Every structure is written in structure tokens, then in C-alpha cells.
Amino acid sequence: MLTLGLDIGSTSCKAVVLRDGCKILAETVIPLGTGTVGARQAFDGALAEAGIGFDAIGRTCVTGYGRFTFKEADEQKSELSCHAKGMHFVYPDARTIIDIGGQDVKVLSLGKNGALANFVMNDKCAAGTGRFLDVMARVLNVKVEELGDLDAQAQEVVSISSTCTVFAESEVISKLSSNVRIPDLTAGIHASVAKRVAGLVFRAGLVEKVAMSGGVALNKGVVRALKKELKTDILVHPDCQLTGALGAALYAFDDLPGGKKPA
Ligand code: ADP
User: Which residues does residue 118 pair with via DSSP β-bridges, in sequence order?
Assistant: First the structure.
């Protein structure tokens, strides 16, 4: 039986088609957030990649910041529940999940069975989020996808003292004008994100193993800086940006008529 999970985020829309609650048949990431055509494109894209029509899907579940805007789904679930479920599926031993998306940071504490025991979130400020990195990449005149490689070329970490995105942007511009190397500045930007996120992890309580989800987990520089700050290894799955959609597809499977009910 096929199920579909859709994650309508602030910055991107993701969809996963799952067979029998265990095998990923197709997955799509559209770099458009809620309030755009991103959700429809992710949904249709995943069906096209799986080579099936909507009729072949037994049940759909939608999650993410923009979930209330997508009326066609059979059910809606919170991002916290879906990230917990998706991450427990890919890393059953993970107890601390750091999810950094386009506009928020969440730290989830999971029990041995994958149930959500506790969570901590950033306040409304963009510091430590994907938005902060997107702004910094624009100032550095590079793509956000390039930040990880730039960080790897750093010879030193140029620290950024402002946490506020607007002030940090001015600070980076001023450092650029005094000829600081872009890789060193990039490492400083990542260190600033890591410090901010580590504060949330310590508030939630660090229990190993630690894993990361969300689009920012694709940035190897942030992962490197966070490992250093937390003094622990961090698991990053290649599908890290899709785990919310995966969790939604797993919920849709559990909730199929006659399907497996959650424990
Ligand atoms: P949301 O679910 O809130 O829409 P995502 O989990 O998709 O957010 O994360 C979006 C963020 O991930 C972007 O703001 C960007 O900083 C980062 N990101 C996305 N793709 C990449 C990539 N290939 N490399 C590095 N960072 C990325």
C-alpha cells in the first residue's frame, strides 16, 4: 500500500511516497515555501517520480508550517511529531534531534521507542536558523550550498559578535571591507549558528546519539561547528531535509484503515 507525506515548510516543500510503511519510492524537494505553488509541485513531482497517479495513494498526511493551507490531505500532523517519527525511522538509536529549518530551530528529545519526550525551540529571532545563513550567503555573494566547502577552506575562525541577523549582516559587510578571507568569515558565521543552537541543545538536555534534520543539516560547515560545540558526533542522513515528509508518510501508513496503529 502506498502513502504520501507532504511537508510544507517556510522555505521549501518536501514530499515522500512510501510503500508499505517501509520503502521510499520517490521524494521531492521544491525550494519554495508555504504560500506558493511549492506544495503542489512537491506533491505532483513525487507522484511523477514514482510513476503513479493520485488514485494509487492509499492515504496522505501533511505537516509543516503551511500544513493548514493544503486541504486535499487526509490528515494533518504537527512538525514535531513528524520529525520525531521520520528520524526514529532512519536512526532508531537517536535520542536528541536537532532540526534546523528555514525559520526555526527545534531540539527534540526522544525516548527509546521514538516517542517525543521533550522539545525546545528558538524564540522568534532568526539567529541560528536557515534564514540567518541565507542572509549571510547573500552578503558573501555565494550560494547557500557553497557555505560548507568554503568553511572547509578556513584557516581561522573570524568570530561574529552580533547574534541579531541584522547586526550580524552589518558586521559581516564591515569585515568583508577590511579584507577578511571569505572562508574564515564563513567559519565564523557557522560558529555563531552552532553556539546559538548548542544553547538550545543543552537546555533540552544532550543525550546521545545526536542526529540532525532539516535543510541546514546539508551544510557540512554547520555540522562541523556544531560537533565541536557539543563535543559529540552528529548523525546526518542524506535525506535529512525530507524526514518531516517521511514521518508524515509513516503516519499516513499507520492511520490507513486496517493499518498499524501507533503504540
Ligand atoms: P523549512 O522546512 O523551514 O522550509 P528546510 O528544512 O527545508 O526549511 O531548510 C531550509 C534551509 O536549509 C535554507 O534556509 C538553507 O539555509 C538550508 N539549505 C537548503 N538546502 C541546502 C543545501 N543544499 N546546502 C546547504 N544548506 C541548505
Answer: 109
